[in-house]
């Protein structure tokens, strides 16, 4: 098992490029089950979850190749079972339910795994598919769904679930009749999936809003498509620039999709400026604490909560962070306390009081974004920090240590 070793205290300076978005690439890859003919994807990040998804596609009968950041895919002989050995490591695997029900009228998918940050039940997915004519049984840890033919339906989610919206969107593309998805997730990654499906011939309108209309078609065709850049990776680099009192030019930055993050960074005293060749980020004087509440898009993203908390550890005064998406997403707090942070938890709210500096220490990552927050903290801390269990980090950040070393960081990978 690997760990990252970081010698902190170096101001990061220079250009740093953002990779393709993991949270957009995963559903798009699983949507490759739907079209007839070859799909050619570009800007696909080389990540652990991507390799897991490609293995799952191969098992499901989809022939794939991964060269550089390009994926080609073509369905050969579609199977209906997603085995536990793959699904247990990655929650996004449940997104094969929609395509399999739409194409084969049957799907057998193991209950999903992933980061241990909350319940994230699939009930909303299943109830939506039931409205489209599917029936489900739970058999030995597997969700077994069957239908005659999925029918278009009016789906109104109780909560704007990203995975649920994506799953239904893929199924509705090939369902009989029209579907309306109300209280749909508005995240840019959902919109990217819709744009991919449209490129394959789907008839979708309203994506990017809370009401999506889908007119089912009889078939989809292969296409060429470029995955959007990763807004969470870009946001993490923004925090790293401010944390180390450096200056980064973030290239391929999805600036418009980061409105809520940029707003809070500016409120804290960070200079963020969109330029022709990227987004320039540096401190704009003294950092100050702010109050943050995580919300579904276009609100402040839960995936940036840990990174902003880390930045607030060095800000003047105090601020609060209320986590309203996941009930178990403060596991990084105990590790930040080991580095000298001043954070108090009460339920789903963290009170952060700024300190003069952080100190390097051995820390352990508990999930993907917690990993990123500990790396950012280590970049600014005095002395050496060992970030253990970075397999979480490898699920969401492509070549992170290489990119950070390119802007001056002292970071390397070692075996634990």
UniProtKB/TrEMBL annotation:
Return the broad EC class.
Answer: transferase
GO cellular component labels: cytoplasm
Specify the superkingdom: Bacteria
Q: Which residues bind phosphoenolpyruvate?
A: 22-23
The cellular location(s) given in this protein's UniProt record come to: Cytoplasm
In this chain, UDP-N-acetyl-alpha-D-glucosamine is annotated as bound at 91, 120-124, 303, 325
Catalyzed reactions per annotation: phosphoenolpyruvate + UDP-N-acetyl-alpha-D-glucosamine = UDP-N-acetyl-3-O-(1-carboxyvinyl)-alpha-D-glucosamine + phosphate
Gene Ontology biological-process annotations? cell division; cell wall organization; peptidoglycan biosynthetic process; regulation of cell shape; UDP-N-acetylgalactosamine biosynthetic process
Q: Where is the active site?
A: 115 (proton donor)
Task: Indicate whether Chaperone appears among the record's keywords.
Answer: no
Q: Which UniProt keywords apply?
A: Cell cycle, Cell division, Cell shape, Cell wall biogenesis/degradation, Cytoplasm, Peptidoglycan synthesis, Pyruvate, Transferase
Q: Which residues form the Enolpyruvate transferase domain?
A: 7-404
What PANTHER family does its record include?
UDP-N-ACETYLGLUCOSAMINE 1-CARBOXYVINYLTRANSFERASE (PTHR43783)
Q: Which family does it belong to?
A: Belongs to the EPSP synthase family. MurA subfamily.
- Function of the molecule: Cell wall formation. Adds enolpyruvyl to UDP-N-acetylglucosamine.
Please report the name of this protein according to its UniProt entry.
UDP-N-acetylglucosamine 1-carboxyvinyltransferase
Gene name, Swiss-Prot/TrEMBL: murA
């Amino acid at each position: 098992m690997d760990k990252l070793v970081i010698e902190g205290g170096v101001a990061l300076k220079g250009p740093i490029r953002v990779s393709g978005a993991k949270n957009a690439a995963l559903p798009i890859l699983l949507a490759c089950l739907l079209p007839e003919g070859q799909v050619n994807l570009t800007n696909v990040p080389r990540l652990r979850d991507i390799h897991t998804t490609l293995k799952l596609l191969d098992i499901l009968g989809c022939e794939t190749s991964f060269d550089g950041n390009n994926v080609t895919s073509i369905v050969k002989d579609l199977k209906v079972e997603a085995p536990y050995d793959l699904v247990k490591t990655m929650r996004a695997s449940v997104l094969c339910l929609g395509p399999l029900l739409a194409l084969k009228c049957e799907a057998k998918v193991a209950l999903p795994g992933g980061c241990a940050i909350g319940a994230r039940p699939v009930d909303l997915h299943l109830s939506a598919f039931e409205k489209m004519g599917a029936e489900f049984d739970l058999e030995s840890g597997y969700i077994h769904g069957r239908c005659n033919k999925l029918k278009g339906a009016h789906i109104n989610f109780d909560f704007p679930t990203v995975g649920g919206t994506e799953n239904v969107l893929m199924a509705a593309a090939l369902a009989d009749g029209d579907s309306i998805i109300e209280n749909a997730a508005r995240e840019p990654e959902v919109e990217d999936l819709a744009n991919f499906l449209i490129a394959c011939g789907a008839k979708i309108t309203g994506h990017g809003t809370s009401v999506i209309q889908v007119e089912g078609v009889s078939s989809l065709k292969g296409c060429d498509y470029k995955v959007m850049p990763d807004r969470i990776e870009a946001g993490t680099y923004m925090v790293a620039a401010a944390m180390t009192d450096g200056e980064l030019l973030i290239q391929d930055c999805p600036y418009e999709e980061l409105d809520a993050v940029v707003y809070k960074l500016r409120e804290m005293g960070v200079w963020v400026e969109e330029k022709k060749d990227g987004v320039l980020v540096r401190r704009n004087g003294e950092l100050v604490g702010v109050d943050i509440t995580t919300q579904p898009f276009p609100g402040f993203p839960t995936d940036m909560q840990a990174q902003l908390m880390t930045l607030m550890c060095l800000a003047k005064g105090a601020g609060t962070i209320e986590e309203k998406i996941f009930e178990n997403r403060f596991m990084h707090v105990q590790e930040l306390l080991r580095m000298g942070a001043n954070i108090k938890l009460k339920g789903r709210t963290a009170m952060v009081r700024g300190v003069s500096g952080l100190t390097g220490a051995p820390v352990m990552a508990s999930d993907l974004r917690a990993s990123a927050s500990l790396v950012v903290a280590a970049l600014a801390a005095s002395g050496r920090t060992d970030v253990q269990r970075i397999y979480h980090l490898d699920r969401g950040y492509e070549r992170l240590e290489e990119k950070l070393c390119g802007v001056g960081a002292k970071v390397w990978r070692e075996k634990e």
